[in-house]
Amino acid sequence: MPEVALRKPASDARVPRGLKPPRGTNLGIDSRPMKIRPAESRDGMGVLALVPQLSAFGPPPWRDVRQMIATDERVVAAALSGLAPDSTVLVAEGDGGELLGFIHLRPETDYFTGQDLGHVADIVVAPEARGQGVGRALMEAAEAWARERGHPMLTLNVFVENAAARALYERLGYQAELIKYVKDLR
Hints:
By secondary structure, the chain is an alpha+beta fold. The protein has one domain (23-171): Gcn5-related N-acetyltransferase (GNAT) (Aminopeptidase), CATH 3.40.630. The chain contains 4 helices and 6 strands, in the order E-E-H-H-E-E-E-H-E-H. Strands 1-2-3-4-5-6 form a 6-stranded mixed β-sheet, with helices on both faces. Helix 3 (134-148) links the parallel strand 5 (116-125) and strand 6 (154-156). The longest helix is centred in the middle third of the chain and has 17 residues, at 65-81. It is globular, with a radius of gyration of 16 Å. The termini are far apart.
């Protein structure tokens, strides 16, 4: 995927529910100059340093946060090193070269149709870059990645308590499809 340079959109237009915003429209989020590009070896340490943010929202009490972080670090490291050949990691980079966030993408087979879909395995925006359009830019890049591969849909999972992420996905047109219930039997 080629680098994509993003600048602050000129419009702060609001889009009525159910309509798609024009490409590049700012949905009330302050945007900052950035580019989205494939992760390189020099990004590995910075990307892995952001992984603990995946559980910073307060996961359910039955989940072991240390185990969650270790698993995410292992999976993201495999994607970065090429050990997961179907996976892609894109990074958002600021004008000064600073890492603003990353998104880890992979194909996933739809349970109902058997079709290959695009899947957002992980997305993290650095705390200091939140609210500046980084998550939106990474999700737009993920959609482009999925389209380039002919995936008819892009899916993701999000914990119920991660309200900020859920609000972003809904603003971008994502809808809940399945709800997973869990009962701790220990």
